[in-house]
Amino acid sequence: MTTFHRIWFGDKPIPPAYEDYWRAWQRQYPGHEFVTWRDEDIDRLPRMRDRIRQLRVPSMRADLGSFEILHAHGGVYLDCDVMPWHRFRPEEMARELTVCNESDSTEYCSLGFVASPPGHPVFDAMIEYLRDADIDEGNPHIATGPWLFGRFLAGHECRRLPSSAFYPYAAVEPLSVVRRRDLSGTLGIHVWGGSWLPGTAKQDKVMQMIARGDVAEPAVLLRGFEGDVEHADWARDVGLMIEAVRDIREKTLQIVPLLGYDFSVNAKDAAVFELAKVAHWLFARAPDTRVWQVGTSRERPDPLRAALVNDDPPALLIDSDTARVAALAADHAAHANARAVALAPAEGGMAWEEIWAAAGDVPPDVLVLHDGAGSAAVIADVLDRGHRPAVIHFDMVGMDPADLRMLLGRLGDDYATLEYGAHMAAYRFDLIMEYAGALYVENGIATVFSEGVKTLNGVEA
């Protein structure tokens, strides 16, 4: 068992989003220990407690705390603003000092994720240095943060993960850019929210996001200016700008369909429509979205798990192998809304009709199938009952070519299909339009509307 650590010092409540991330980490790794270090725990850090209490800058206090926590206990340390994505093996990760920097530089090293065995000498050396150092609270990144860590790392061996493992986007970018990024190697996403920034820096971040086409993130940051008399006029003007951008984009979406464009998904937009990204958006918008997963993913990473972990929608996890069902149940033990079911009547499990009855004859909104040979029959059964799930994702390996042709013929009138290696994703057209529309209005990501948007704005293709 590995211990995951986070720190939240100070009187302010932990933001709801950070609590959501922490619960998601616990769903990702059931059976492991999760510890939140608060002010009342500072006395458990005897080497750093006096310095921690002397400092006023929250990030610096957390830096000092993390060094002693990792030295004393080892495990995985995470900043509060890191959300989980794909799985890793915590025991293996913490077997040696493992770090991940937001860039390729080795002069400094980010501290949002660090894994280590207990007693690592790099933390002992940093603690000894910081006990007597003259700490400049005006330069946290240099005095206690990434630049200090990078300096001490230079004398020690460590495993360096690629930046994309925990920093798939930069601090100057909006979170929405990850929809276009390859997240296949991403284990967690450090969310550069910026709510902690001082007024002027927060203003700069708002304008950077708008300049990159995103208005959703700036709208959230603007809430931090409520009651701020000094920046009231600026915040009002920017709020009006965001409203205007949204209005223009919504009107654009009303006009573009009249221009006769084909709203098909191009290859360059395939990353935006990957299952986990679409499902994460769908579950956040409609938490009661029902999921049926038939079979167990043999893929790494699992194409759906990131969304299940972060959103915990009501899910039936169905497999015909009772051993795999037991593994599924253990794997999702921290999910409040997931249920593993054996499709194995001969072994005491349920028959297919009993599974429908257990679901109250309510069909899935998201149907994910990992058994290529049996997928066509399951999908056909759902369609034959008159249901049209918003998402159908299936493995084509082992599927009879005739069954695949038949299936595509049945999906053709209502769904857009995309191939991802051995997998196919079928999205109902209304979902495609709603998802793509939301991305365009809120994040400036045009996808299926690209050609029409260019025409309306006089931009050459």
UniProtKB/TrEMBL annotation:
Gene Ontology BP annotations: mannosyl-inositol phosphorylceramide biosynthetic process
SUPFAM superfamilies: Nucleotide-diphospho-sugar transferases
Keywords: Transferase
Molecular function in Gene Ontology: mannosyltransferase activity
Pfam families given in the database record: Gly_transf_sug
Top-rank taxon: Bacteria
UniProt GO cellular component terms: membrane
Hydrolase as UniProt keyword: no
InterPro entries: Glycosyltransferase_domain (IPR051706), GlycoTrfase_DXD_sugar-bd_CS (IPR007577), Nucleotide-diphossugar_trans (IPR029044)
PANTHER family the UniProt entry points to: INOSITOL PHOSPHOCERAMIDE MANNOSYLTRANSFERASE 1 (PTHR32385:SF15), MANNOSYL PHOSPHORYLINOSITOL CERAMIDE SYNTHASE (PTHR32385)
Protein name: Glycosyl transferase
Species this chain originates from: Sphingomonas ginsenosidimutans
Lineage: Bacteria, Pseudomonadati, Pseudomonadota, Alphaproteobacteria, Sphingomonadales
